[in-house]
Write a structure and sequence with these properties.
single chain; alpha+beta; elongated
Protein backbone atom coordinates (compact mmCIF):
# COMPACT_ATOMS: atom_id res chain seq x y z
CA UNK A 1 0.00 0.00 0.00
CA UNK A 2 1.00 3.62 -0.51
CA UNK A 3 0.77 6.29 2.17
CA UNK A 4 0.80 10.01 1.31
CA UNK A 5 2.22 12.12 4.12
CA UNK A 6 1.78 15.90 3.98
CA UNK A 7 3.86 18.08 6.29
CA UNK A 8 3.61 21.90 6.57
CA UNK A 9 6.42 23.85 8.17
CA UNK A 10 5.81 27.50 8.93
CA UNK A 11 6.65 30.35 11.25
CA UNK A 12 4.06 31.92 13.51
CA UNK A 13 2.81 35.26 12.19
CA UNK A 14 4.18 38.49 13.63
CA UNK A 15 2.12 39.61 16.60
CA UNK A 16 2.40 43.34 15.92
CA UNK A 17 2.65 44.52 12.29
CA UNK A 18 4.00 47.91 11.30
CA UNK A 19 5.44 49.58 8.21
CA UNK A 20 8.90 48.59 9.45
CA UNK A 21 8.06 44.92 9.94
CA UNK A 22 10.39 42.51 8.13
CA UNK A 23 9.37 38.99 7.18
CA UNK A 24 12.10 36.65 8.36
CA UNK A 25 12.51 33.76 5.92
CA UNK A 26 16.04 32.58 6.71
CA UNK A 27 15.10 29.77 9.09
CA UNK A 28 12.37 28.37 6.84
CA UNK A 29 14.70 28.56 3.80
CA UNK A 30 17.44 26.70 5.65
CA UNK A 31 15.04 23.92 6.72
CA UNK A 32 13.70 23.65 3.16
CA UNK A 33 17.25 23.49 1.74
CA UNK A 34 18.27 20.79 4.24
CA UNK A 35 15.29 18.57 3.34
CA UNK A 36 15.88 18.95 -0.42
CA UNK A 37 19.65 18.37 -0.18
CA UNK A 38 19.32 15.23 1.97
CA UNK A 39 16.66 13.77 -0.31
CA UNK A 40 18.47 14.49 -3.62
CA UNK A 41 21.76 13.13 -2.25
CA UNK A 42 20.04 9.88 -1.15
CA UNK A 43 20.92 10.34 2.53
CA UNK A 44 17.28 10.84 3.54
CA UNK A 45 16.44 7.32 2.32
CA UNK A 46 19.25 5.84 4.37
CA UNK A 47 18.28 7.76 7.50
CA UNK A 48 14.61 6.81 7.01
CA UNK A 49 15.45 3.12 6.72
CA UNK A 50 17.62 3.21 9.85
CA UNK A 51 14.97 4.95 11.96
CA UNK A 52 12.84 2.34 13.84
CA UNK A 53 9.82 4.64 14.03
CA UNK A 54 9.30 4.60 10.26
CA UNK A 55 7.99 1.00 10.35
CA UNK A 56 10.08 -0.40 7.51
CA UNK A 57 8.61 2.09 5.02
CA UNK A 58 10.59 3.69 2.19
CA UNK A 59 9.96 7.11 0.59
CA UNK A 60 9.41 6.67 -3.13
CA UNK A 61 8.72 10.30 -4.07
CA UNK A 62 9.07 13.74 -2.50
CA UNK A 63 7.19 16.79 -3.78
CA UNK A 64 7.90 20.11 -2.15
CA UNK A 65 6.45 23.61 -2.31
CA UNK A 66 9.14 26.11 -1.38
CA UNK A 67 8.44 29.37 0.47
CA UNK A 68 6.83 32.06 -1.72
CA UNK A 69 6.11 29.53 -4.51
CA UNK A 70 2.60 28.60 -5.58
CA UNK A 71 3.34 25.18 -7.06
CA UNK A 72 5.00 21.93 -5.98
CA UNK A 73 7.79 20.11 -7.81
CA UNK A 74 8.86 16.48 -7.66
CA UNK A 75 12.50 15.95 -6.67
CA UNK A 76 14.98 13.46 -8.15
CA UNK A 77 17.97 11.69 -6.59
CA UNK A 78 21.28 12.36 -8.31
CA UNK A 79 23.17 9.43 -9.78
CA UNK A 80 25.87 10.93 -12.04
CA UNK A 81 27.02 14.05 -13.90
CA UNK A 82 28.28 14.41 -17.45
CA UNK A 83 30.38 17.10 -19.17
CA UNK A 84 28.09 17.65 -22.14
CA UNK A 85 30.01 20.57 -23.71
CA UNK A 86 33.76 21.09 -23.36
CA UNK A 87 35.09 24.63 -22.89
CA UNK A 88 36.90 25.87 -26.00
CA UNK A 89 38.19 29.02 -27.74
CA UNK A 90 39.96 29.93 -24.51
CA UNK A 91 42.28 32.95 -24.27
CA UNK A 92 44.40 33.90 -21.31
CA UNK A 93 42.76 36.16 -18.73
CA UNK A 94 39.47 35.95 -20.65
CA UNK A 95 36.25 33.90 -20.61
CA UNK A 96 36.32 30.99 -23.05
CA UNK A 97 34.30 31.53 -26.20
CA UNK A 98 32.46 28.24 -25.57
CA UNK A 99 31.45 27.82 -21.94
CA UNK A 100 31.34 24.34 -20.31
CA UNK A 101 27.97 22.67 -19.70
CA UNK A 102 27.45 19.82 -17.22
CA UNK A 103 24.20 17.85 -16.82
CA UNK A 104 23.05 15.75 -13.84
CA UNK A 105 21.07 12.49 -14.28
CA UNK A 106 19.09 10.20 -11.97
CA UNK A 107 19.54 6.40 -11.96
CA UNK A 108 16.96 6.04 -14.77
CA UNK A 109 18.96 8.38 -17.03
CA UNK A 110 16.53 11.29 -16.73
CA UNK A 111 17.86 14.85 -16.67
CA UNK A 112 17.50 16.47 -13.26
CA UNK A 113 16.10 19.97 -13.72
CA UNK A 114 17.14 21.35 -10.34
CA UNK A 115 19.46 20.44 -7.50
CA UNK A 116 18.96 22.21 -4.19
CA UNK A 117 16.45 24.89 -3.28
CA UNK A 118 15.75 27.99 -5.31
CA UNK A 119 17.81 30.29 -3.08
CA UNK A 120 20.50 27.71 -2.26
CA UNK A 121 21.15 25.72 -5.46
CA UNK A 122 23.92 23.14 -5.73
CA UNK A 123 27.16 24.45 -7.17
CA UNK A 124 29.95 22.97 -9.31
CA UNK A 125 33.56 24.07 -9.08
CA UNK A 126 36.30 23.57 -11.69
CA UNK A 127 39.96 22.95 -10.92
CA UNK A 128 43.10 22.53 -13.03
CA UNK A 129 44.59 19.04 -12.99
CA UNK A 130 48.35 18.95 -12.40
CA UNK A 131 49.53 22.42 -13.65
CA UNK A 132 49.91 24.95 -10.86
CA UNK A 133 50.94 27.82 -13.19
CA UNK A 134 47.45 28.14 -14.66
CA UNK A 135 44.58 29.33 -12.52
CA UNK A 136 40.90 29.42 -13.32
CA UNK A 137 38.61 32.41 -13.82
CA UNK A 138 34.89 32.09 -13.05
CA UNK A 139 35.36 28.52 -11.80
CA UNK A 140 32.08 28.22 -9.82
CA UNK A 141 28.59 27.93 -11.36
CA UNK A 142 25.08 27.16 -10.06
CA UNK A 143 23.08 24.17 -11.30
CA UNK A 144 19.55 25.06 -12.47
CA UNK A 145 17.22 24.50 -15.43
CA UNK A 146 18.83 21.14 -16.17
CA UNK A 147 22.47 22.31 -16.52
CA UNK A 148 25.31 24.34 -15.02
CA UNK A 149 25.17 28.09 -15.60
CA UNK A 150 28.75 29.02 -16.53
CA UNK A 151 29.14 32.46 -18.13
CA UNK A 152 32.72 33.61 -17.39
CA UNK A 153 34.76 30.40 -17.19
CA UNK A 154 38.36 31.00 -18.34
CA UNK A 155 42.04 30.30 -17.69
CA UNK A 156 44.80 32.67 -16.69
CA UNK A 157 47.80 31.83 -18.90
CA UNK A 158 48.87 30.49 -22.28
CA UNK A 159 49.35 26.73 -22.42
CA UNK A 160 47.53 23.39 -22.25
CA UNK A 161 45.77 21.83 -19.27
CA UNK A 162 43.05 19.47 -18.12
CA UNK A 163 40.13 20.62 -15.95
CA UNK A 164 38.04 18.61 -13.46
CA UNK A 165 34.49 19.57 -12.46
CA UNK A 166 32.95 18.46 -9.13
CA UNK A 167 30.05 19.43 -6.84
CA UNK A 168 30.69 21.56 -3.82
CA UNK A 169 29.39 19.73 -0.75
CA UNK A 170 25.78 20.91 -0.21
CA UNK A 171 24.58 22.12 3.19
CA UNK A 172 23.46 19.37 5.62
CA UNK A 173 24.98 16.63 3.42
CA UNK A 174 27.79 14.54 4.89
CA UNK A 175 31.21 14.28 3.29
CA UNK A 176 30.72 10.54 2.79
CA UNK A 177 28.16 11.37 0.10
CA UNK A 178 30.85 13.13 -1.94
CA UNK A 179 33.21 10.14 -1.69
CA UNK A 180 30.70 7.31 -2.12
CA UNK A 181 29.17 8.67 -5.36
CA UNK A 182 31.40 9.69 -8.25
CA UNK A 183 30.07 13.17 -8.99
CA UNK A 184 33.05 14.48 -10.97
CA UNK A 185 33.75 14.97 -14.65
CA UNK A 186 37.10 15.58 -16.39
CA UNK A 187 37.76 17.44 -19.61
CA UNK A 188 40.23 16.54 -22.29
CA UNK A 189 43.29 18.75 -22.79
CA UNK A 190 42.36 22.43 -23.27
CA UNK A 191 44.45 24.94 -25.24
CA UNK A 192 44.75 28.53 -24.02
CA UNK A 193 45.92 31.16 -26.51
CA UNK A 194 47.11 34.75 -26.19
CA UNK A 195 44.62 37.33 -24.94
CA UNK A 196 43.00 39.81 -27.31
CA UNK A 197 42.36 43.04 -25.42
CA UNK A 198 40.39 46.23 -25.82
CA UNK A 199 39.20 49.08 -23.61
CA UNK A 200 35.72 50.10 -22.50
CA UNK A 201 34.74 53.45 -21.06
CA UNK A 202 33.21 53.54 -17.59
CA UNK A 203 31.80 56.39 -15.48
CA UNK A 204 30.69 58.28 -18.58
CA UNK A 205 30.64 62.07 -18.54
CA UNK A 206 28.57 63.93 -21.15
CA UNK A 207 28.45 67.64 -20.32
CA UNK A 208 31.02 70.01 -18.80
CA UNK A 209 31.42 73.77 -18.78
CA UNK A 210 34.30 75.67 -20.33
CA UNK A 211 37.50 75.24 -18.24
CA UNK A 212 35.75 72.79 -15.90
CA UNK A 213 37.89 69.77 -14.93
CA UNK A 214 36.70 66.26 -15.69
CA UNK A 215 38.02 62.65 -15.66
CA UNK A 216 38.09 59.91 -18.28
CA UNK A 217 37.92 56.33 -16.93
CA UNK A 218 38.42 53.10 -18.88
CA UNK A 219 38.71 49.41 -18.06
CA UNK A 220 40.70 46.82 -20.01
CA UNK A 221 38.43 44.05 -21.33
CA UNK A 222 38.50 40.96 -23.50
CA UNK A 223 37.84 42.20 -27.03
CA UNK A 224 35.27 39.49 -27.81
CA UNK A 225 33.27 38.93 -24.63
CA UNK A 226 33.81 42.52 -23.34
CA UNK A 227 34.38 41.07 -19.87
CA UNK A 228 36.90 43.05 -17.76
CA UNK A 229 40.35 41.49 -17.41
CA UNK A 230 40.76 40.47 -13.78
CA UNK A 231 44.52 40.93 -13.65
CA UNK A 232 46.14 43.41 -16.04
CA UNK A 233 49.45 42.90 -14.20
CA UNK A 234 49.82 39.25 -15.21
CA UNK A 235 53.25 38.30 -16.50
CA UNK A 236 54.51 41.43 -14.69
CA UNK A 237 52.98 43.57 -17.41
CA UNK A 238 52.93 47.37 -17.02
CA UNK A 239 50.76 49.93 -18.82
CA UNK A 240 50.92 53.53 -20.04
CA UNK A 241 48.17 55.80 -21.39
CA UNK A 242 48.10 58.78 -23.76
CA UNK A 243 45.05 61.11 -23.81
CA UNK A 244 44.18 63.40 -26.75
CA UNK A 245 41.28 64.91 -28.69
CA UNK A 246 39.92 62.64 -31.42
CA UNK A 247 39.97 64.21 -34.90
CA UNK A 248 36.40 64.05 -36.24
CA UNK A 249 35.95 63.35 -39.96
CA UNK A 250 34.12 66.69 -40.34
CA UNK A 251 32.96 69.74 -38.38
CA UNK A 252 35.66 69.73 -35.70
CA UNK A 253 35.46 72.31 -32.94
CA UNK A 254 38.45 74.55 -32.25
CA UNK A 255 39.01 73.74 -28.58
CA UNK A 256 42.16 72.41 -26.94
CA UNK A 257 42.54 69.62 -24.40
CA UNK A 258 44.52 71.07 -21.52
CA UNK A 259 46.40 69.02 -18.95
CA UNK A 260 46.71 70.99 -15.72
CA UNK A 261 49.38 70.71 -13.03
CA UNK A 262 47.07 68.32 -11.16
CA UNK A 263 46.35 66.10 -14.18
CA UNK A 264 47.56 62.52 -13.84
CA UNK A 265 47.11 58.95 -15.09
CA UNK A 266 46.03 56.48 -12.38
CA UNK A 267 46.36 52.75 -13.17
CA UNK A 268 44.61 50.36 -10.78
CA UNK A 269 45.87 46.81 -11.39
CA UNK A 270 43.30 45.35 -8.97
CA UNK A 271 40.27 46.85 -10.74
CA UNK A 272 41.94 46.84 -14.18
CA UNK A 273 41.05 50.53 -14.58
CA UNK A 274 42.97 53.48 -16.03
CA UNK A 275 41.82 57.00 -15.10
CA UNK A 276 42.95 60.31 -16.62
CA UNK A 277 42.14 63.05 -14.09
CA UNK A 278 41.61 66.84 -14.10
CA UNK A 279 41.36 67.45 -17.85
CA UNK A 280 40.06 70.76 -19.30
CA UNK A 281 38.67 71.86 -22.69
CA UNK A 282 38.66 75.62 -23.33
CA UNK A 283 36.14 76.19 -26.17
CA UNK A 284 32.44 75.54 -26.67
CA UNK A 285 31.70 72.50 -28.85
CA UNK A 286 31.33 68.75 -28.71
CA UNK A 287 34.47 66.65 -28.45
CA UNK A 288 35.49 63.00 -28.43
CA UNK A 289 38.47 61.89 -26.34
CA UNK A 290 40.94 59.30 -27.61
CA UNK A 291 42.65 57.09 -25.01
CA UNK A 292 45.59 55.08 -26.31
CA UNK A 293 46.88 52.25 -24.10
CA UNK A 294 50.24 50.56 -24.45
CA UNK A 295 51.61 47.60 -22.49
CA UNK A 296 55.23 46.97 -21.64
CA UNK A 297 57.39 45.99 -24.64
CA UNK A 298 54.52 47.21 -26.88
CA UNK A 299 52.93 43.77 -26.71
CA UNK A 300 49.50 45.36 -26.66
CA UNK A 301 48.66 48.70 -28.28
CA UNK A 302 45.01 49.70 -28.67
CA UNK A 303 42.84 52.78 -28.25
CA UNK A 304 39.40 53.81 -27.06
CA UNK A 305 37.10 56.50 -28.47
CA UNK A 306 35.01 58.08 -25.70
CA UNK A 307 31.42 59.23 -25.85
CA UNK A 308 30.80 62.77 -27.09
CA UNK A 309 31.48 65.38 -24.43
CA UNK A 310 29.65 68.70 -24.71
CA UNK A 311 31.64 71.72 -23.57
CA UNK A 312 29.16 74.49 -22.91
CA UNK A 313 28.66 77.93 -21.52
CA UNK A 314 26.68 78.28 -18.33
CA UNK A 315 23.03 77.53 -19.02
CA UNK A 316 20.23 75.47 -17.57
CA UNK A 317 19.32 72.26 -19.33
CA UNK A 318 15.59 71.63 -19.71
CA UNK A 319 14.23 68.18 -18.96
CA UNK A 320 12.24 67.92 -22.19
CA UNK A 321 13.95 69.13 -25.40
CA UNK A 322 11.71 71.50 -27.35
CA UNK A 323 13.25 71.04 -30.80
CA UNK A 324 14.41 68.21 -33.01
CA UNK A 325 15.78 67.38 -36.44
CA UNK A 326 15.03 64.09 -38.19
CA UNK A 327 17.78 62.66 -40.37
CA UNK A 328 17.45 59.75 -42.77
CA UNK A 329 20.23 57.40 -41.68
CA UNK A 330 21.01 53.97 -40.25
CA UNK A 331 20.97 54.40 -36.46
CA UNK A 332 21.61 50.70 -35.81
CA UNK A 333 24.63 50.68 -38.12
CA UNK A 334 26.18 53.65 -36.31
CA UNK A 335 25.55 51.99 -32.97
CA UNK A 336 26.93 48.55 -33.85
CA UNK A 337 30.05 50.06 -35.46
CA UNK A 338 30.72 52.35 -32.43
CA UNK A 339 30.21 55.48 -34.56
CA UNK A 340 27.14 56.85 -32.80
CA UNK A 341 29.02 59.16 -30.43
CA UNK A 342 31.24 60.37 -33.28
CA UNK A 343 28.13 61.24 -35.31
CA UNK A 344 26.66 62.95 -32.26
CA UNK A 345 29.72 65.16 -31.94
CA UNK A 346 29.72 65.92 -35.68
CA UNK A 347 26.02 66.88 -35.63
CA UNK A 348 26.51 69.20 -32.66
CA UNK A 349 29.50 70.95 -34.22
CA UNK A 350 27.63 71.26 -37.52
CA UNK A 351 24.71 72.97 -35.75
CA UNK A 352 27.13 75.37 -34.10
CA UNK A 353 28.76 76.01 -37.49
CA UNK A 354 25.44 77.08 -39.06
CA UNK A 355 24.69 79.33 -36.04
CA UNK A 356 21.89 77.23 -34.54
CA UNK A 357 21.48 78.86 -31.06
CA UNK A 358 21.64 75.61 -29.05
CA UNK A 359 21.26 75.90 -25.29
CA UNK A 360 21.52 72.22 -24.33
CA UNK A 361 23.25 68.96 -25.02
CA UNK A 362 21.93 66.95 -27.97
CA UNK A 363 20.40 63.49 -27.68
CA UNK A 364 20.27 60.96 -30.52
CA UNK A 365 17.30 58.62 -30.66
CA UNK A 366 16.16 55.99 -33.11
CA UNK A 367 13.82 56.49 -36.03
CA UNK A 368 15.75 57.05 -38.37
CA UNK A 369 18.18 59.36 -36.51
CA UNK A 370 16.40 62.00 -34.43
CA UNK A 371 18.40 64.80 -32.77
CA UNK A 372 16.78 66.35 -29.68
CA UNK A 373 17.91 69.72 -28.28
CA UNK A 374 16.85 73.13 -26.94
CA UNK A 375 17.39 76.48 -28.63
CA UNK A 376 17.54 80.14 -27.62
CA UNK A 377 14.90 82.59 -28.84
CA UNK A 378 17.06 84.26 -31.49
CA UNK A 379 14.86 84.64 -34.62
CA UNK A 380 17.67 85.70 -36.93
CA UNK A 381 19.99 82.83 -35.98
CA UNK A 382 17.13 80.32 -36.03
CA UNK A 383 15.99 81.42 -39.48
CA UNK A 384 19.53 81.28 -40.85
CA UNK A 385 20.20 77.82 -39.37
CA UNK A 386 16.88 76.37 -40.58
CA UNK A 387 17.50 77.79 -44.05
CA UNK A 388 20.98 76.22 -44.13
CA UNK A 389 19.63 72.77 -43.21
CA UNK A 390 16.65 73.01 -45.56
CA UNK A 391 18.75 74.09 -48.56
CA UNK A 392 21.55 71.56 -47.97
CA UNK A 393 20.09 68.50 -46.19
CA UNK A 394 23.13 66.34 -47.10
CA UNK A 395 25.74 68.49 -45.37
CA UNK A 396 26.63 65.66 -42.95
CA UNK A 397 27.91 62.49 -44.55
CA UNK A 398 25.67 59.39 -44.27
CA UNK A 399 22.77 61.55 -43.04
CA UNK A 400 20.01 63.42 -44.88
CA UNK A 401 17.89 65.96 -43.02
CA UNK A 402 14.21 65.34 -43.79
CA UNK A 403 12.38 67.58 -41.31
CA UNK A 404 13.09 70.29 -38.75
CA UNK A 405 10.98 71.08 -35.69
CA UNK A 406 11.86 74.25 -33.78
CA UNK A 407 9.74 74.97 -30.70
CA UNK A 408 6.71 73.25 -32.20
CA UNK A 409 7.02 74.66 -35.74
CA UNK A 410 7.87 72.16 -38.47
CA UNK A 411 9.93 72.98 -41.57
CA UNK A 412 10.58 70.73 -44.55
CA UNK A 413 13.85 70.39 -46.40
CA UNK A 414 14.65 70.17 -50.09
CA UNK A 415 15.04 66.40 -49.67
CA UNK A 416 11.48 65.95 -48.40
CA UNK A 417 10.12 68.53 -50.90
CA UNK A 418 11.65 66.77 -53.89
CA UNK A 419 10.16 63.42 -52.95
CA UNK A 420 6.72 64.89 -52.33
CA UNK A 421 6.85 66.97 -55.56
CA UNK A 422 7.50 63.81 -57.57
CA UNK A 423 4.38 62.26 -56.12
CA UNK A 424 2.35 65.45 -56.64
CA UNK A 425 3.47 65.83 -60.27
CA UNK A 426 2.31 62.30 -61.02
CA UNK A 427 -1.08 62.91 -59.43
CA UNK A 428 -1.38 66.32 -61.19
CA UNK A 429 -0.79 64.68 -64.58
CA UNK A 430 -3.55 62.20 -63.84
CA UNK A 431 -5.89 64.98 -62.72
CA UNK A 432 -5.10 66.98 -65.86
CA UNK A 433 -5.97 64.06 -68.16
CA UNK A 434 -9.22 63.42 -66.29
CA UNK A 435 -10.17 67.12 -66.39
CA UNK A 436 -9.48 67.48 -70.12
CA UNK A 437 -11.43 64.34 -71.02
CA UNK A 438 -14.39 65.25 -68.85
CA UNK A 439 -14.32 68.80 -70.15
CA UNK A 440 -14.42 67.73 -73.81
CA UNK A 441 -17.17 65.21 -73.23
CA UNK A 442 -19.20 67.79 -71.30
CA UNK A 443 -18.79 70.36 -74.08
CA UNK A 444 -19.92 67.86 -76.70
CA UNK A 445 -23.02 67.02 -74.69
CA UNK A 446 -23.90 70.71 -74.31
CA UNK A 447 -23.40 71.44 -78.03
CA UNK A 448 -25.55 68.48 -79.04
CA UNK A 449 -28.29 69.54 -76.64
CA UNK A 450 -28.36 73.10 -78.03
CA UNK A 451 -28.37 71.82 -81.62
CA UNK A 452 -31.34 69.50 -81.19
CA UNK A 453 -33.18 72.18 -79.22
CA UNK A 454 -32.83 74.64 -82.10
CA UNK A 455 -34.01 72.05 -84.61
CA UNK A 456 -37.09 71.33 -82.53
CA UNK A 457 -37.85 75.02 -82.23
CA UNK A 458 -37.54 75.64 -85.99
CA UNK A 459 -39.83 72.70 -86.74
CA UNK A 460 -42.41 74.06 -84.32
CA UNK A 461 -42.25 77.54 -85.93
CA UNK A 462 -42.73 76.18 -89.45
CA UNK A 463 -46.04 74.61 -88.41
CA UNK A 464 -47.37 77.92 -86.96
CA UNK A 465 -49.58 80.12 -89.23
CA UNK A 466 -48.22 83.64 -89.53
CA UNK A 467 -51.44 85.76 -89.62
CA UNK A 468 -51.76 89.50 -89.07
CA UNK A 469 -53.63 90.14 -85.88
CA UNK A 470 -55.52 93.23 -87.20
CA UNK A 471 -56.67 91.40 -90.39
CA UNK A 472 -57.99 88.64 -88.24
CA UNK A 473 -60.12 91.11 -86.44
CA UNK A 474 -61.62 92.52 -89.70
CA UNK A 475 -62.24 89.15 -91.18
CA UNK A 476 -63.68 87.63 -88.09
CA UNK A 477 -65.42 90.54 -86.35
CA UNK A 478 -68.55 88.51 -86.11
CA UNK A 479 -66.87 85.34 -85.04
CA UNK A 480 -68.01 83.67 -81.90
CA UNK A 481 -66.46 83.77 -78.46
CA UNK A 482 -65.02 80.30 -78.98
CA UNK A 483 -62.68 81.53 -81.77
CA UNK A 484 -61.32 84.39 -79.60
CA UNK A 485 -60.70 82.00 -76.77
CA UNK A 486 -58.71 79.70 -79.09
CA UNK A 487 -56.51 82.54 -80.32
CA UNK A 488 -55.87 83.72 -76.77
CA UNK A 489 -54.95 80.23 -75.70
CA UNK A 490 -52.59 79.85 -78.65
CA UNK A 491 -50.89 83.16 -77.85
CA UNK A 492 -50.38 82.15 -74.24
CA UNK A 493 -48.92 78.82 -75.39
CA UNK A 494 -46.51 80.65 -77.73
CA UNK A 495 -45.41 82.97 -74.95
CA UNK A 496 -44.83 80.05 -72.67
CA UNK A 497 -42.76 78.34 -75.36
CA UNK A 498 -40.54 81.41 -75.75
CA UNK A 499 -40.01 81.70 -72.02
CA UNK A 500 -39.09 78.05 -71.66
CA UNK A 501 -36.62 78.25 -74.56
CA UNK A 502 -35.04 81.38 -73.14
CA UNK A 503 -34.50 79.73 -69.73
CA UNK A 504 -32.94 76.64 -71.29
CA UNK A 505 -30.51 78.71 -73.34
CA UNK A 506 -29.56 80.79 -70.33
CA UNK A 507 -28.84 77.61 -68.44
CA UNK A 508 -26.20 76.57 -70.96
CA UNK A 509 -24.53 79.95 -71.30
CA UNK A 510 -20.75 79.64 -70.61
CA UNK A 511 -18.82 82.30 -68.80
CA UNK A 512 -16.21 83.98 -71.02
CA UNK A 513 -13.74 83.61 -68.13
CA UNK A 514 -13.28 79.95 -69.06
CA UNK A 515 -11.71 80.11 -72.52
CA UNK A 516 -11.54 76.34 -72.79
CA UNK A 517 -15.31 76.07 -73.16
CA UNK A 518 -17.32 76.63 -76.41
CA UNK A 519 -19.40 79.81 -76.57
CA UNK A 520 -23.15 79.41 -77.08
CA UNK A 521 -24.43 79.07 -80.63
CA UNK A 522 -27.52 81.17 -79.77
CA UNK A 523 -26.89 84.56 -78.25
CA UNK A 524 -30.42 85.81 -77.68
CA UNK A 525 -34.05 85.24 -78.55
CA UNK A 526 -36.49 88.10 -78.01
CA UNK A 527 -39.73 87.29 -76.29
CA UNK A 528 -42.17 89.24 -78.55
CA UNK A 529 -45.87 89.04 -79.21
CA UNK A 530 -47.35 87.75 -82.46
CA UNK A 531 -46.62 90.04 -85.46
CA UNK A 532 -49.48 91.99 -86.99
CA UNK A 533 -51.96 90.17 -89.24
CA UNK A 534 -51.23 89.68 -92.95
CA UNK A 535 -47.52 90.22 -92.43
CA UNK A 536 -44.75 87.68 -92.42
CA UNK A 537 -42.60 87.55 -89.30
CA UNK A 538 -39.57 85.25 -88.96
CA UNK A 539 -37.40 85.13 -85.85
CA UNK A 540 -33.89 84.40 -87.12
CA UNK A 541 -30.78 83.05 -85.36
CA UNK A 542 -27.90 85.40 -84.80
CA UNK A 543 -24.69 84.59 -86.59
CA UNK A 544 -22.53 81.95 -84.98
CA UNK A 545 -19.83 83.69 -83.00
CA UNK A 546 -16.56 81.83 -83.29
CA UNK A 547 -14.32 81.53 -80.31
CA UNK A 548 -11.39 83.66 -81.33
CA UNK A 549 -9.71 83.66 -77.94
CA UNK A 550 -6.16 82.43 -78.08
CA UNK A 551 -5.46 81.88 -74.40
CA UNK A 552 -3.09 79.04 -73.60
CA UNK A 553 -3.11 76.65 -70.65
CA UNK A 554 0.08 77.71 -68.87
CA UNK A 555 0.86 75.71 -65.75
CA UNK A 556 1.00 77.54 -62.44
CA UNK A 557 4.26 78.02 -60.72
CA UNK A 558 5.08 75.57 -57.92
CA UNK A 559 3.58 76.48 -54.58
CA UNK A 560 5.93 76.38 -51.61
CA UNK A 561 4.71 76.32 -48.04
CA UNK A 562 6.85 78.44 -45.78
CA UNK A 563 6.42 78.44 -42.07
Amino acid sequence: STIILTVEIRDDPVEVLSTNSIVETGSISNICSAIINRYQSGELHQAWAENPSTGNTTPIDLSIQEPFNQSSISLSIIHQIELAILPSSCREQSPCGIQPKLIAYDKDGNVIEKLGSNDQPWQIIASVVGDSNITLIGAIANYSNGQTQYTSFGLSAIGNCQVQFAFIQPNNVTSSFMSNINLTANSSSLTITKATLAAKQIDHIYVVSINETFNISVVIVDSQSRFPIENIHWRNMTWSAYISLYNLPEFNSNGTLIKTNTSSIIIDVVKSTIIATNLIIDTVGMYVIKVQLTSSNNEYVFSLISNGILVKKKFNDSSLPSSNITFIGDYDKFQTSDLLEIKRAIIYNYLIRIRMPITSDIILTKGSVIVLFDVDSDPESLASAVDSIASDPNAISDLTASSININGKTYSTSASSSSSSDENSSSNRTALIITVVVGLVGSAIIICGVYFGIKAYEKHQQRRRLIDESSDQHAFDNAGMQSDENITTEMETRKNNFQLTQRILDAVRISPKNTNQVKPLITDIENTDRPPSSSVSATTLDSVIENSDTHTNASLSAVQLKK
